[in-house]
Amino acid sequence: MIFKAVGEGRPYPDHGYSTSKQWSDVPPSQVRLDDLVTTKRTLDLDALLSEDSTFFGDLFAHVVQYQGELYLEDGLHRAVRAALHQRPVLHARVLVIDAQDG
């Protein structure tokens, strides 16, 4: 199994991080793919196969830690690409939010 679970939607409250500048304040770290729960069930193959898919975006995936779970909010194509290269970890920006946040 690549991911811990495949989800649909964001089960956590809105965190207010919507711009690249906001996310850039969150330092990147390594996360294990098998610890991640996806927030999307489908993958855009164009994004997966594009060599410049991060040209206009963040180089790191965006993960939200909420109630002990790690949710892959943005960067599903990066995570699948890492899995296809048999890499068990992904570099991501991990935003930690609590139930009272949002």
From TrEMBL:
InterPro entries: VapB-like_prob. Pfam families: VapB. Residues 1-26 are annotated as: Disordered. This is Type II toxin-antitoxin system VapB family antitoxin. The lineage of its organism: Bacteria, Bacillati, Actinomycetota, Actinomycetes, Kineosporiales.
